[in-house]
Amino acid sequence: MKTVFLFGTIFLVFLVSCAEQQRSKMETEPTSTYMDYSNSEDQFTGGINMIAINTPKGTFKVWTKRVGNNPKKKVLLLHGGPGGTHEFFECFDGYLPKEEIEYIYYDQLDSYYSDKPNDSTLWTTDHFVEEVEQVRKALNLNKDNFYLLGQSWGGILAMEYALKYQDNLKGLIISNMMASIPEYEKYAAEVLGPQLPPEVYKEMKAMEANNDFMNPKYSELVMQHYYTEHFLRLPMNKWPESINRAMAHLNPNIYVFMQGYSEFGVTGDATLKGWDVSQKLKTITVPTLVIGATHDTMDPKYMEWMSKELPKARFLLCPNGSHLSQYDDQKTYFSGLIKFITDVDDHNFKLNKYRHE
Question: Cα dist. 168→20, 171, 213, 311 in Å?
């Protein structure tokens, strides 16, 4: 009995000692403030800020939501569309918090969570560039912390912003977007279209020729044969809920006005017709990451060319990805994105270093 009692006493002393050591370790180790909102004005809203945007047609508010705190790494996310939402980026929640990279969701004017003046005179790249600049100022983003990531239409907006305001940037990420609409249309017509089943492509082109875009059959063919190959490479019944929500929230008015109806180019007199800044890329001198994907609606070889035109750029290829490669080639996408931000922050950025890692 004495032996058992002695063993129990020693074991109890051991447990107490371990607890004290653990408590001492917790007291001496620095505690991360990444998810600490306690000293922030937006604690009440969980990081949401409705930012006032001044326009020639009045003042309107756009929806933003920041996740985390990092004084040196803040990524503003520009969604696609036009007329899309931040919901296309919700998978960022699965990767950036672990790296303690702050990121900010943002719905552009006339997108689902923001004000909707529904005024087409505001649906221009010039307006949206100035809108981003006003958001930047409101969120205190600057050249010491401001990374701008734009995907698809957001990539157009990111390039246009950098061409005017690159002195405000620490880093630029152009995701799944070419610098030339004519080159995009050429790639769609000469490469992607002919990859479709011949009878499907023929039927789609016939409906496009007749401007029969509202035909339910057209949407059905696009979704079943084009989107599941080049937009998000998953069967539609396996698309993430966030993507289905983003698609349901897309504003068709602004989308059609700027992009048109077709997925093979910009149709009619849509305002992005002919957009091309390929010859201006040389003037963007901030560290830049260009992200492309093998199965993208955008030509990955052209996007690699873009990275060589940009003075300080890398190219990241997502070999299994499509237009939403943050979902269908997630590991490649986020490892490359995180490495880029980390290297820029550590002053360890090297040019055209890798295609994929």
Answer: 48, 9, 41, 17
pTM over 0.70: yes
Helix (H) or strand (E) holding 309: helix 300-309
Spans of the chain, pLDDT less than 50: 2-4, 25-26, 353-357
Is residue 323 among the annotated active site residues?
yes
Distance CA 258, CA 214 (A): 17
Is there a catalytic annotation at residue 296?
yes
CA distance 230 to 329: 12
**What domains appear along the chain, each with residue ranges and CATH number?**
46-182+276-345 (3.40.50.1820), 185-258 (no CATH)
C-alpha torsion angle, residues 184, 190, 193, 195 (rounded to 10): -120
* Given 79, 86, 230, 323, the catalytic residue: 323
3-state secondary structure 192-258: HHHHCCHHHHHHHHHHHHCCCCCCHHHHHHHHHHHHHHHCCCCCHHHCCHHHHHHHHHCCHHHHHHH
pLDDT tens by residue, 280-298: 999 999 999 999 999 999 9
Give the active site residue among 107, 296, 328, 329.
Answer: 296
Catalytic member of 111, 152, 262, 325:
152
